[in-house]
Write a structure and sequence with these properties.
alpha+beta, 6-stranded mixed beta sheet, 23 helices, 17 strands, globular
Amino acid sequence: MLQYLLTIFLGCMSMLLFCALCRRKQKDDEPPLIKGWIPFLGKALEFRKDSYQFLTKLQQKHGDVFTVLIAGRYITFVMNPLLYRSVIKHGKQLDFHTFSDSAASKAFGYPPMQTGRFPGLSDSIQKTYTLLQGPALDPLAFKMIGNLQQVLRHLLLSSEGAEPDGDWLDAELYEFCKCVMFEATFKTLYGQSSHLKLDQLREDFEKFDVFFPLLMARVPISLLGKTNEIREKLTRFFYPHRVAQWNSACEFIQSRTALFQQYDNLQDHDKAAHHFAMLWASVGNTIPAAFWCLYHLLSCPEALAAVQAEIVNVVGEEKMQSICKEDIMITRKQLDQMIYLESSVNESLRLSSVSMNIRVVQENFCLRLDAQHSIALRKDDIIALYPQSTHLDPEIYTQPQQFQFDRFVEDGKEKTEFYKCGQKVRYYRMPFGSGTTQCPGRFFALNELKQFICVMLLMCEMQLPQIQQEAMLDTSRAGLGIMPPANHILFKYRPRKAQDYIESEE
């Protein structure tokens, strides 16, 4: 990784003269400006190393709002959640979609959609996301719960010694979650075929994903070794003639495929790149989220016992005893009844989400933050909300660094009221963004995570070794969503016995 950072740094040196001629100075009505001593890069390396510590120190020194030069962009951070609404409500002056379109098209290799070349395509794509919400979730939930059981059952049966009362099997927890979630999610969305080589697809996906943060930071793919070659291989996997051979694609993917066919100037490569981008969107954050959800439960005996008892109580003992032999159905309605499961998932997301909510300033204007304060913003600058500062705020969450499985439960239902400075915090948990820019697949993702935990707890006994370093966040991916673990975590597992369910209720 260091050699790539060095290459990037040398490539940026060509910007030195330009930067010297265009040195920015803070105006009286603008937030404090932090540029660093490296032209163009600014504070990029410090931000990448540990964004939370870096921004927290700046907040302590400069206040809740400040501007930082990071990789050629001036980003104004708003760190106080009580000020978030003033940013979110400005849809006209602060836009996200153009920035997202530009960044994604460069990362995944398809032409930008908002340039006039593809009239109506962007809006039509947005409409397809309704197929990941509401009643459309029911058939997706049905497919996902079945695929999870089949993938895990195959994994258990193919593992030597994986029999009830048999020896414990050792595995690396994150790799295990990758295997299960990648295959189950792909089959749920894109369907199945006897010719699919999903293990190879996942291996190539992981190679690409290592450099994804650099692509999103606008580093040219030509500077990233074989990343372009790997991206082309992944894109070819989704060429239209191949996708047409897969069986049982979900309605969401079928709708997108039909939509792409309506545009003659959208090449096969472009259509395939869109599908690849959707694959990344569907598993890039869900896989690490699945890891943290399972890891936190296994690390907390009280949480594990409460969630497991709740699952058994809702689903019923009869189904529990048959799950290792045949598929069972857990409906969305049943999942909604599991308040401790949902709280545990939300608590894991709170602790592992290091996303940024980004808006691009469309014109020079003055943003009023509250009754007493306003700031001047420049066109083409970025304004960013940084939810991790809220998620780890001790005034909002007591002992914020600790996992508390029932943190979002109060009086037998979801807790939604949290306070700071005596004021109710509206945006207290933001793993999926905010306002109109919230992740459109968030309902499907939450459903997946709850289903994954249900299936794992019902089908497997699991243990973490007593002596093992705690899992840590890989902070190098800050700003992109859920952080993967930075270190390997081992665990033991084996299929459950039918009588385990009876004993767990006694």
